[in-house]
């Protein structure tokens, strides 16, 4: 194998496939990146058995071939090389990948990295899904941004580390919960005839949003127990999370005794100031008093002090005292874009629903804390 390519293009490819390179590989070959050169292209693959990725880039292929090289050392080296033309060649006699510069005016370098036998690498072959649909990058990013924070990071409960995606009649819904809070967002999807339901790892959705180029339509293929995302030079497939996701419809408030309309920015700024005290201690419960024309927010930390703020609101229904986890409220308010939001309540111990005014496609449910 012998190829020539641009350092910045190769660096971009390696940076992208790092998503699928395990930090601690149980099988040595999975610590590497699989390279395959043929027909004017270099294909890079990485896999941690849960997620696998193919990245295809242009290259001048003098000799086709394949190899596996350490993902860590290869990426760290390439990203520190000067932005110029790079020649990669497989040295069969020494089982190494040789990297040399081809532009002497910019200085020269010569590196050799040990390779790993490629026959044990689980080479990925792209598949078409039994169910397929497309979604624009800005739509996916918005859905993930407004739900991701409600997922759990506890790997002992994998079902809550994923986002439930439901598609029906041209509408895609994304739901996330850690059992203490829930976020629901929805938007349009193509084609309108698609029907699907799956739980996708939330961390992967967040990574896709990070690497997908702007103004890109993402093709999604639902496979047996897997889902594949195709965009630009990337083909990425991951295992779906198996299990029964909680019925989120049961916590959506249908009857409300108290509802307050509040200026989102005022509420957010008040919570951010109070959180300066919250973050320094182990006590994270804030008490809220919903009155006829204002909301009083009170926090007490015996190690630091107390805080009290008042925010104007329009109240419909009964006055109410309730307590919430301060971080949960702050996460919600940071992801509301409308000028005003509403909070719907029933009792001091029942879940509350927060919604942006004028944006019915978003709903947040948070469980109160005992005072």
List keywords for this structure.
13-stranded antiparallel β-sheet; 25 strands
Q: Mean pLDDT, as a whole number?
A: 93
In DSSP terms (H or I, runs of 4 or more residues), the helix count works out at 6
Strand proportion, as a percent range, falls in: 35-45%
Strand order of the largest sheet: 5-1-7-8-9-6-2-3-4-17-16-15-10
Query: Count of DSSP E strands?
Result: 25
Report on this structure.
The chain is 17% helix and 44% strand. The protein contains 6 helices and 25 strands. The chain has a 13-stranded antiparallel sheet with strand order 5-1-7-8-9-6-2-3-4-17-16-15-10. A 12-stranded antiparallel sheet has the order 14-11-12-13-25-24-23-18-21-20-19-22. β23 (340-345) and β24 form a beta hairpin. α1 (7-17) runs antiparallel to α2 (71-78) and α5 (264-278) runs antiparallel to α6. It starts with a strand and ends in a 5-residue tail after the last strand. The model has no long low-confidence stretch (mean pLDDT 93).
Chain-wise SSE layout:
Blueprint lengths: L1 E5 H11 L14 E7 L2 E7 L3 E8 L1 E4 L1 E6 H8 L6 E7 L4 E6 L8 E7 L14 E6 H9 L16 E7 L2 E7 L3 E8 L7 E6 H10 L5 E6 L3 E6 L2 E6 L18 E6 H15 L6 E6 L3 E8 L3 E13 L2 E6 H9 L5 E6 L6 E5 L5 E5 L5
Helix pairs in contact: 1-2, 3-4, 5-6
């Amino acid at each position: 194998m012998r190829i020539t390519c641009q350092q910045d293009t190769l660096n971009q490819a390696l940076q992208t496939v790092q998503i699928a390179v395990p930090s601690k590989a149980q099988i040595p070959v999975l610590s590497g990146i699989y390279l395959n050169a043929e027909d004017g292209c270099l294909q890079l693959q990485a896999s941690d058995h849960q997620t696998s990725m193919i990245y295809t880039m242009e290259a001048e292929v003098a000799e086709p071939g394949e190899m596996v090289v350490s993902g860590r050392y290869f990426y760290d080296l390439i990203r520190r090389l000067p932005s110029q033309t790079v020649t990669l060649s497989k040295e069969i006699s020494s089982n190494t990948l040789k990297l040399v510069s081809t532009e002497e005016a910019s200085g020269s370098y010569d590196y050799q990295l040990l390779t790993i036998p490629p026959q044990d690498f689980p080479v990925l072959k792209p598949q078409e899904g039994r169910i397929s649909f497309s979604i624009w990058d800005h739509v996916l990013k918005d859905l993930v941004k407004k739900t991701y924070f409600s997922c759990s990071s506890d790997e002992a409960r994998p079902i809550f580390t994923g986002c439930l995606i439901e598609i029906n009649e041209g509408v895609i819904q994304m739901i996330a919960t850690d059992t203490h809070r829930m976020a629901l967002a929805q938007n349009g999807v193509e084609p309108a005839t698609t029907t699907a339901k799956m739980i996708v790892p939330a961390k992967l959705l967040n990574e896709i949003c990070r690497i997908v180029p702007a103004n890109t339509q993402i093709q999604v293929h639902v496979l047996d127990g897997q889902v594949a995302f195709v965009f630009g030079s990337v083909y990425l497939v991951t295992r779906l999370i198996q299990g029964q996701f909680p019925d989120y419809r049961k916590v959506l408030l249908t009857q409300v005794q108290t509802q307050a309309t509040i200026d989102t920015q005022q509420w957010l700024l008040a919570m951010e100031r109070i959180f300066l005290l919250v973050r320094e201690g182990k006590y994270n419960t804030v008490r809220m008093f919903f009155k006829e024309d204002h909301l009083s927010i009170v926090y007490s930390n015996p190690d630091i002090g107390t805080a009290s703020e008042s925010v104007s609101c329009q109240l419909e229904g009964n006055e109410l005292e309730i307590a919430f986890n301060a971080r949960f409220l702050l996460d919600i308010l940071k992801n509301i874009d409308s000028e005003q939001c509403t909070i719907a309540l029933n009792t001091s111990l029942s879940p509350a629903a927060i919604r942006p005014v004028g944006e019915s496609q978003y709903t947040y449910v948070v469980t109160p804390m005992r005072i």
